[in-house]
Write a structure and sequence with these properties.
about 250 residues, 2 domains, eight-stranded mixed β-sheet, elongated, Endonuclease, Chain A
Length: about 250
């Protein structure tokens, strides 16, 4: 028994000496063991485990990116329009955009059934042309303007009347709260557009100055209750108006 143990120890001694005297053999053995270690690693190693210098594929997080607002480019203006139709309200300012009309037109492209407008001033031919085009497509259109539009030099109300679009003008004396203030008459100062699923309102008149040159704002409201409140106001206001059946000044 002691003889066998002595022989085994001698063999192990000579094997160790050979490996120490032959570095290439030692390196091969190490690489073999390392390869065996990696072959037993899970297939996800390198993608789920941290490795210095490992670069994660660029498309890994694509599905987790948050949806961005709708971005459009209007043909009449190269500025990008950020319109988020999922928001209950959204505001736009002339200080941030060259022309509010490009935003206004994009929002109006949603109109499908009806378009009610109450305008203190209506002189922007681009807006008037859109109203006429919508009416010809079968959209229900009704416009209320301040009485000054009936004889104002740059008013485009006559374009609407010529195309048989229902236009009404505000007559202050029909309002139960009417009170004359000196020589001036109270005016209808709304800037409102009401459609199927939104209301457009704000400081900007429907004029080129209001849409482009002045410091103005427009607000998009999509809350259903708010839309209904504006519709109620429109019908209430109509009771204080006279329908335009001709181009005779008010």
């Amino acid at each position: 028994m002691m003889k066998r143990l002595s022989i085994l120890l001698l063999c192990m001694f000579f094997d160790s000496s050979a490996m120490l005297n032959n570095p290439s053999l030692l390196q091969k053995t190490s690489l073999k063991n390392r390869s065996a270690s990696f072959s037993n690693a899970p297939r996800t190693f390198g993608t789920t485990h941290f490795i210095v210098g490992y670069q994660e594929p660029s498309d890994v997080h694509k599905k987790y990116k948050k949806n961005k607002p709708i971005i459009r480019n209007d043909k009449q203006n190269s500025e990008a329009l950020f319109i988020d139709r999922d928001r209950i309200s959204q505001s736009f300012f002339s200080t941030a955009h060259d022309d509010l009309f490009t935003i206004l037109l994009e929002i109006l492209s949603e109109v499908k059934k009806e378009l009610y407008i109450a305008a203190f001033a209506l002189t922007d031919k681009r807006i008037v042309d859109f109203i006429i085009e919508s009416y010809k497509k079968g959209i229900e259109v009704c416009v209320i303007v301040d009485a000054n539009n009936m004889n104002q030099r740059h008013s485009k109300v006559q374009n609407l009347v010529k195309d048989n679009i229902p236009v009404w003008y505000y007559k202050p004396s029909l309002n139960p709260k009417y009170k004359k203030n000196g020589l001036s008459e109270p005016c209808m100062h709304h800037k409102i557009m009401i459609s199927d699923d939104f209301v457009i309102t704000g400081s900007a008149n429907f004029t080129k100055a209001g849409q482009k040159h002045n410091i103005e704002n427009i607000n998009i409201l999509r809350d259903r209750q708010t839309i209904n409140e504006y519709r109620t106001e429109f019908e209430r206001l109509k009771k204080f108006c006279v329908q335009c059946t001709s181009l005779i000044s008010a």
